[in-house]
Design goal:
Shape: globular
Strand order of the largest sheet: 2-10-9-4-5-6
Structural class: mainly beta
Number of strands: 10
Helix content: under 10%
Largest sheet: 6 strands, mixed
Radius of gyration: 13 Å
Length: 120
């Protein structure tokens, strides 16, 4: 059974930092690339960072150099360290496995997400 629990969001001023956490069930975490997605108001959900089983990391241009994704296998947890936050980073953030989403599409399970608001 897939379970994803995101936490760590909140209100932060521009230039500030937050660290998001995602506790994932073993079935989805162990053998998959894991990623962080975000959905801003009125926009589609987008993948912004992902990490392979080998620890290779990838980022979209809008967050490159500011966000860092990592994973702790012992805790089945994925993290997103977000620095130099901008108002355009405001969104609900979710974690998931891109391959799992591609396979299950509309049947894929998502967590509740964690809201990040960047505002002065």
């Amino acid at each position: 059974q897939v379970q994803l629990v995101e936490s760590g969001g909140g209100l932060v001023q521009p230039g500030g930092s937050l660290r998001l956490s995602c506790a994932a069930s073993g079935s989805i975490f162990s053998n998959n690339v894991m990623g962080w997605y975000r959905q801003a108001p009125g926009k589609q959900r987008e993948l912004v960072a992902w990490i392979t089983n080998g620890g290779n990391t990838y980022y979209v241009d809008s967050v490159k150099g500011r966000f860092t994704i990592s994973r702790d296998r012992a805790k089945n947890t994925v993290y997103l360290q977000m620095n130099s936050l901008k108002p355009e980073d405001t969104a609900v953030y979710y974690c998931n496995a891109p391959d799992y989403i591609a396979e299950y599409r509309n049947l894929a399970v998502w967590g509740q997400g964690t809201l990040v608001t960047v505002s002065s």
